[in-house]
Amino acid sequence: MTDLHHTDTQVIGLNQHSLQTLPSHIDVPRYDRSQVKAGIVHIGVGGFHRAHQAVYINELLKTPGSEQWGICGVGLLEGNRGLRDILKKQDYLYTLTVRHPNGKIDNQVIGSMVDFLFAPEDKQAVINKLAHSDTKIASLTITEGGYNFNPATGEFDYTNPDIIHDINNPNDPITAFGYLTAALKCRKEQGLAAFTVQSCDNIQHNGNVTRKMLLAFAKEQDAQLSEWIEQNVAFPNAMVDRITPVSKKSDIDYVVDTYGVSDEWPITCEHFSQWVIEDTFCNTRPQWDQVGAQFVKDVTPFETMKIRLLNAGHSVLGLLGSIHGYSTIDETVSDPLFATYLRAFMDDEVTPNLEKLDGIDIEVYKDTLIERFANPNIKDNLARICSESSAKLPKFIIATINENLKLGRDVSLATLVIATWCLYSDKRESEHGQALDIQDAMSDELHTYAQKTQDDSSAFLKLTSLFGELEKNTEFTNVYKNIITELYAPKSNIKAIMQAVLTQKSN
Ligand code: CS2
Question: What is the pTM for the complete model shown?
Answer without folding.
Answer: 0.95
